[in-house]
Amino acid sequence: MMINQFLNYLRYERNASPQTVQTYEESLREFESYLSLRDNGLFIETADADLIRDWMESLMDKGNTASTINKKLSALRSFYRFALKRKLVEKDPAHCITGPKKSKPLPQFLREGEMDHLLDGLEWDDTNYKDVRARTILLLFYEAGLRRAELIGLNDGDVDFAIGQLKVTGKRNKQRIVPFGKELAEALSAYRTVRDEQGGKGSDAFFLNDKGDRMTAPQVYSLVRKYLSAVTSLKKRSPHVLRHTFATAMLNHGADLESIKNLLGHESVSTTEIYAHTTFEQLKRIYKEAHPRA
């Protein structure tokens, strides 16, 4: 009876669309059915917050997404607000209920074999400026975990070959130091030599486009997408995928989250923890594929 009153309120007082009315009704009937199946003495008029939470938990157990559950909870909130205003219930049990947080999509990354093929398996001409530049950019993203804007913003003075480190300017102009190893040092040095010989020098920027100016964001994105397309079937093939690949590789080879956080320039380790979830998901997938009884 109360549900029908609420639906009529939506139709005739709120002028809600038929689709909205149907969506709300489906959610309310579903909750009503849950109460009935649980106990014949439970009714939507007298349901409390614990019953609503139990219902949400049952929805999660059935595989409903956080988004779907929050939509159902929204219908319930609207219903009880209406009922409370009309004095059809004594209290609103839904007002204090917090819906489940939407899960963030796990970052996409390349497997180590794909990165090896990208950097060592493709045909690179070490005398050609564009080839040397492309491979150096890919290697730098992978070995230093830079953001696209950070790579573009590198100047010659930010690369210290003597002690093997980069001075990186990140978000809000916050600077950090990122070390690099022998392979990247050799690649950066070789690129700089070829650049100065063939690419021209019209800027302080470390990475130059064909006109001798600092590379732009679209140019770097296009370059990375082109080469990632040759080694991976991932839908996303951006510079950020290589940043994710760097972080995942570091974690898989024993680096702690705090160190990865500092290398990536994250404000909080909670941002970095997403890579731990990525690694765990990878382990679960390998387990399911490999274990005979999984």
Report on the structure:
This protein is mainly alpha-helical. The protein has two domains: 2-85, Tyrosine recombinase, N-terminal domain (DNA polymerase, domain 1, Orthogonal Bundle), CATH 1.10.150.130; 112-290, Intergrase catalytic core (hpI Integrase, Chain A, Orthogonal Bundle). Helices cover 58% and strands 4% of the residues. It has 13 helices and three strands, in the order αααααααβββαααααα. The protein has helices at residues 2-13, 18-38, 49-61, 66-85, 112-121, 129-144, 148-153, 182-199, 217-228, 239-252, 257-264, 269-272, 274-290, and strands at residues 159-160, 165-169, 175-179. A three-stranded antiparallel sheet has the order 1-2-3. The radius of gyration is 28 Å and the shape is elongated.
Write the layout of secondary structure elements.
Elements: H1 2-13, H2 18-38, H3 49-61, H4 66-85, H5 112-121, H6 129-144, H7 148-153, E1 159-160, E2 165-169, E3 175-179, H8 182-199, H9 217-228, H10 239-252, H11 257-264, H12 269-272, H13 274-290
Antiparallel strand pairs: 1-2, 2-3
Order of helices and strands: HHHHHHHEEEHHHHHH
Number of helices: 13
CATH class of the largest domain: Mainly Alpha
CATH domain topology of the largest domain: hpI Integrase, Chain A
Short description:
By secondary structure, this protein is mainly alpha-helical. The protein has 2 domains: 2-85, Tyrosine recombinase, N-terminal domain (DNA polymerase, domain 1); 112-290, Intergrase catalytic core (hpI Integrase, Chain A, Orthogonal Bundle). It has helices at 2-13, 18-38, 49-61, 66-85, 112-121, 129-144, 148-153, 182-199, 217-228, 239-252, 257-264, 269-272, 274-290; strands spanning 159-160, 165-169, 175-179.
